[in-house]
Specification:
It is built from six helices and 13 strands. With 286 residues, it is an alpha+beta fold. The chain has one domain. The strands form two sheets. Strands 2, 4, 5, 8, 9, 10 and 12 form a seven-stranded antiparallel β-sheet that branches. The protein has a six-stranded antiparallel β-sheet with strand order 1-13-3-11-7-6. The longest helix has 13 residues.
């Protein structure tokens, strides 16, 4: 709860508050994915790999450009924290803040996961979502958010004074270190803010605090993506389970998630190519 203001409102306070907002980043000129091509390609998909992510743990996976991957609920309501990198360059990674600025607080079909500077290009496009019926509830909650950062041991130590090693940040760190051979602390530097897959979140109406509530996900639900470039991904099964009570502990019931990789018929991608990095000169005014 924020403290009450100490200053007397000016005479024109009401007028100042009544100023209409404007969208920070109008997206009328934002390059759009070819969803017709995606739809045609989806009809040809063959599942070529599956990876099970155990509860309170993480696993990595790779997806070639032009292929698809799904994150699937397989046993019970469970949320996942997703990291994405360019397969050959960990410095190009998912930028949740810019993705949020372009597409909003929660993502859905047609939205893209953008990489950070200086690349700023789509890493993946969401192509199917079995939870697209949820929308926003009476509390302002929605699914698949790019608001939260990931549960981590540092905040746990700050707020609770204890160390918990199976939060999403630590899970992702261990998985990336195992995949790349990087020392644990070096791998940790590449772990970044996430897409909270299946998580139901929003901001409270009174204090505007980030909240979570029980995810509507059920076994069989999935979120599907088209890989715009060669990807390395990592997915953590959050220790909060469906995030209805708490995370960063062993208290919640947790379940595995499954990652499925799909290969399309090559001819369906005829004429398609991966987006190029930003064309900005990087002169920065000098």
């Amino acid at each position: 709860m924020k403290p009450a203001g100490k200053n007397t409102p000016p005479k024109d306070a009401a007028a100042r508050r009544a100023v209409k907002p404007v969208i920070c980043y109008p997206v009328d000129t934002l390059p759009q994915p070819d969803m017709a091509m995606v739809a045609a390609t989806r009809d040809t998909l063959e599942m070529t790999e599956t990876i099970i992510v155990p509860p309170r743990d993480a696993r990595t996976f790779t997806v070639p450009a032009g292929h698809f991957f799904k994150i699937v609920s397989v046993e019970g309501p469970q949320v996942g924290d997703l990291n994405l990198w360019a397969r050959q360059d960990l410095s190009e990674k998912f930028y949740s803040g810019k993705t949020r600025a372009l597409h909003g607080t929660h993502l859905g079909v047609g939205d893209r996961l953008w990489s950070g500077f200086p690349y700023l290009r789509p890493l993946a496009t969401i192509t199917y979502d079995t939870l697209d019926w949820y929308g926003f509830d009476a509390y302002g909650g929605g699914v698949h958010d790019v608001i939260g950062t990931r549960c981590d041991p540092y905040t746990g130590r700050l707020l609770g004074g204890t160390d918990y090693h199976h939060c999403c940040h630590s899970n992702l760190t261990r998985a990336l270190a195992a995949e790349t051979g990087l020392p644990l602390l070096e791998a940790e530097r590449h772990v970044h803010d996430v897409l909270n897959v299946f998580m139901c979140t929003g901001f409270t109406r009174d204090t505007h605090q980030y909240f979570m509530k029980a995810s509507p996900v059920r076994p069989g639900d999935f979120l599907e993506f088209f890989a715009e470039i060669d990807l390395l991904g990592a997915l953590s099964t959050c220790p909060g389970g469906d995030c209805s009570t708490e995370h960063s502990s062993d208290a919640a019931a947790c379940y595995p998630l499954e990652i499925q990789i799909f290969t399309p018929e090559p001819e369906t991608l005829s004429g398609w190519s991966s987006p190029r990095p930003s064309a900005y000169s990087r002169g920065h005014g000098l």
